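Hello again, I could really use a second opinion on something today. I've been puzzling over a protein and I'd love to understand its fold better. I'm sending you its amino acid sequence along with the backbone structure tokens. It would help a lot if you went through both lines with me. I've dropped the whole record in just underneath, so have a look.
***
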Amino acid sequence: VQLVESGGGSVQAGGSLRLSCVASSSTASYCMAWFRQAPGKEREGVASIGWTLKPWYADYDLGRFTISQDAAEKTTFLQMNSLRPEDTAMYYCAAGVRCGLVVADFAYWGQGTQVTVS
């Protein structure tokens, strides 16, 4: 499956962004997730959602981020509110067979979309 992210950009602290990830084929058998990687840091999980629609969130999300899916459109979203400068990173969409926030569990990755918060 191929993944294409969009929706990144530059926003001021406190602002919002909605990231989208469009898959080339059905994601019904995958867990879909968002990860992020800041310069000089390891890639870390942000949120994931699987076929049960039970979402997983990183501790730092603190209720600011929401992951959702539109199965018909093969699209996974990440709504990000109350953004902070420390949220600045490249955000990646990923698909895997095991839900959670572990990088190694995801075999398919998009190219990423940059989010910059000032």
User: Anything to note?
Assistant: The chain has no helices and eleven strands.
